[in-house]
Amino acid sequence: MIIINKILNVDDYYFDVFMSVSEALTGFSVNELQSTGLAETYYTYILGSMEAATFVEFLTVSKNVFENSFSQDQLKNTIASEIMADPGLNDMAGKVITIWYLGTWEGAYINDLSYKEGLVWNVMHAHPPGAKQPGYKSWNIKPVNSNS
Fold first, then answer.
1. Which residue from 14, 38, 82, 125 has the fewest beta carbons nearer than 10 Å?
2. What tens digit of pLDDT does each residue of 51-104 get?
């Protein structure tokens, strides 16, 4: 029970591990993830949506991966062998990726902001329809990947 109360504190070490593994899995920096305004929300949402022991196991394995990796290549290889190769941890990693990119957990949006701040919009160089408009006269600017 102590570990559950400790995890709920976003100033705790486990929150930092969550952010570090999120950075490694999404390819976005911790600062970019924090700028969504959803880091703490996602952390506490995940904890409240599943068995705490499962989340703790994922974070503990992730912590060990970071502690035992001394280069970016080694980190990628260790994530592949320690997290992605394990079916349970792979499933958890997929859920973490999905929550950041789509703002959903098991098919449902976390909140209104999670739709607006999904990383998918940055990757597509787009905006979430109906939520964040591109701005006045934005139709006059060629798309980022335009060949015309």
1. 125
2. 888 999 999 999 999 999 889 899 999 999 999 999 999 999 999 999 999 999
Number of domains, the chain:
1
Q: Determine whether 44 is exposed, middle or buried from the number of CB atoms within 10 Å of its CB (0-12, 13-18, 19+).
A: middle
For residue 148, tell me if it sits in a domain.
no
Q: Enter the pTM of the model.
A: 0.83
In sequence order, the 6+-apart residues with CB closer than 8 A to the CB of 21 are 58, 59, 62, 65, 66, 93, 96
Which domain does 53 fall in, by range? 2-140
Which residues in the chain belong to E strands, given as ranges?
104-105, 108-109
Residue 69 lies in a domain: yes
Residue 33 included in any domain: yes
Does 55 reside within a domain? yes
